[in-house]
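for ur thesis appendix - DUF116 domain-containing protein. copy paste whatever u need, i formatted it the way the template wanted (i think)
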Amino acid sequence: MTDKHSSNTPPRKRVFVALMGVTCFFIVGVIYLFWWVPTKGLANIHPDLPRMAGLLFGALSGIALLGTLLLVMTTALGKDILFTRFMRGVVIKFLLPVIEFIGTTVGISKDTIRQSFVAMNNSLVTSQRLKVRPDRILILLPHCLQLFDCEIKVTGDINKCIRCGRCDIKGLAELAQKYRIDISVATGGTLARKVIIEKRPKLVVAVACERDLTSGIKDCYPLPVIGVLNDRPFGPCFNTSVDVEKIEEALQSVLG
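the 3d part is after this line
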């Protein structure tokens, strides 16, 4: 199947925000059911137990609603209000699978949900106003950015690139050189994780497709990752490209 994704249209955070709101109300509904069903039996044990259970489940519902509100406000305002790092972890580790399930159930494609998730993740990362030294930032690229028929393979060492300009590797290598930032090309998730473990960056700017970016952000948490979607005019994993200006914008937002 041909994948002709283009990043000319920026991913919309509102898709993920809307689904997150639906998920929140779904969770509150489940909490209510967990309270309502046993209350009949709890009253037989002790008359105060239904009230105590109601307070407990009410508090859980309040936390869910407050957390959703904080995430929406942080995303909308672009400022770290409260517990942004913790809430980002909750979204990545717990809410994302539920949101994907609800989204696909109502007919939203996984790629659309993941695009929106990446956009929201980026918003949460930048809202923390991180300032990172260039030597602690890593640009991580997929090998498919290099032309398939190029005889010089830059995996492992992008400096092998002869800067012919036929693909975006030239611009990305020059960008890394300009800001004195480490840059690596990985052939897959396993190698990408190995590179991150070896280089131990404080922040990663990663280029990939929706699926790989989503899984990479999940695997790297709590390490902050700013994701940039690649363009795939010839289908997935083949002669892809990326807007180098978007990479530079991401770098400028975090360089300290």
